[in-house]
Amino acid sequence: xxxxxxxxxxxxxxxxxxxxxxxxxxxxxxxxxxxxxxxxxxxxxxxxxxxxxxxxxxxxxxxxxxxxxxxxxxxxxxxxxxxxxxxxxxxxxxxxxxxxxxxxxxxxxxxxxxxxxxxxxxxxxxxxxxxxxxxxxxxxxxxxxxxxxxxxxxxxxxxxxxxxxxxxxxxxxxxxxxxxxxxxxxxxxxxxxxxxxxxxxxxxxxxxxxxxxxxxxxxxxxxxxxxxxxxxxxxxxxxxxxxxxxxxxxxxxxxxxxxxxxxxxxxxxxxxxxxxxxxxxxxxxxxxxxxxxxxxxxxxxxxxxxxxxxxxxxxxxxxxxxxxxxxxxxxxxxxxxxxxxxxxxxxxxxxxxxxxxxxxxxxxxxxxxxxxxxxxxxxxxxxxxxxxxxxxxxxxxxxxxxxxxxxxxxxxxxxxxxxxxxxxxxxxxxxxxxxxxxxxxxxxxxxxxxxxxxxxxxxxxx
Length: 462
Fold this sequence. Notes:
Blueprint: E1 10-19, E2 22-32, E3 35-40, E4 54-57, E5 59-64, H1 89-99, H2 105-121, E6 124-131, H3 147-159, E7 162-169, H4 191-204, E8 212-213, E9 216-217, H5 225-235, E10 240-244, H6 248-258, H7 262-269, E11 276-280, H8 286-295, E12 298-301, H9 303-308, H10 316-321, E13 325-328, H11 338-353, H12 366-382, E14 396-399, H13 412-420, E15 427-432, E16 435-439, E17 442-443, H14 446-460
């Protein structure tokens, strides 16, 4: 059965489910027109019920550059071009720029579709795609300004993932309005062109019932103060995402340019509010992260990518204890999965603080605290709700608890075992807007998606 032809009206039954108020047993969820129409607890499984195992709400991936999925594993050799004679973020970025010389619209769509399918297989049901490939490899504008945005929309439709599309404004190579480099030619736009692009993105997603469109000023390096001031108006009701304070060099350069640190400058000069998601925020002072909390903004953490690039560790434990909101994203997509990101987040805190169960609190285990906090942060940063409630979108992730890693577990221990102890593949099924998009751990269209991806890589890597 194809994804498009699947019925969206169905009844699912689970031995347990994580609902907004906590764990429930023997849960039946009715789905009509892609939304949850009924929810019962303490009921027996019916003859027509689908599902099994443990149900969780789907998680929002708050930060993705899907095209970078094809680079995973290809940048791990030491090179001479880093700041200290070895590789660092900036030398990795040079490799990424060279990678962009080869991928056209067809290849980008194929790579994006595989990344989106893998997100669904890993428990993400919505992705905030931070989209900045606007131009052809030569730097020339496409005849359709939204050519690549249309390919991202097509990949979302092919896979069934919910989409928060974030076209990126990128105009400069560094603080103070430096002219862009050759490697950045696929990103560059001006304000008039960007306004056209955001309008095109809204038209492209108009027929997608739960799509969200926001904007993403790339970073303080790539956007002037005047250009940044235009972003909230272009975002409309959508979210606003920005890279900030990812690297120590970025902090040093911002200080040299403005006399302030990146998050400090942003809070003082931009109308940061709950619509904003500050991606990475790795190198922040306590005054800065408390300022983020006061504004009601979200921090978008990408623990696996931040580890892969040697960024550093955000002070998540102190931030969370003070009421800070955060979500997780897969960024460069070197590895994709909810459990993997949450595990890396917790372990990075343990290594930095030399303690255990850092993100747990008095009422919730480590796994449950992490999971519920990224649910809330993702809901805000993605611009769409993702709770298991009547009227909510039927976006459910089912864990296969028949494996030895889940034996004898219940309640919070189910989440702890998935994140810290279960083998890969614990996500058995995923329903998105009522359609089953993952079955037996694999996307229902994976064979075709993967074949197209392999063909694209023959072009990109050839």
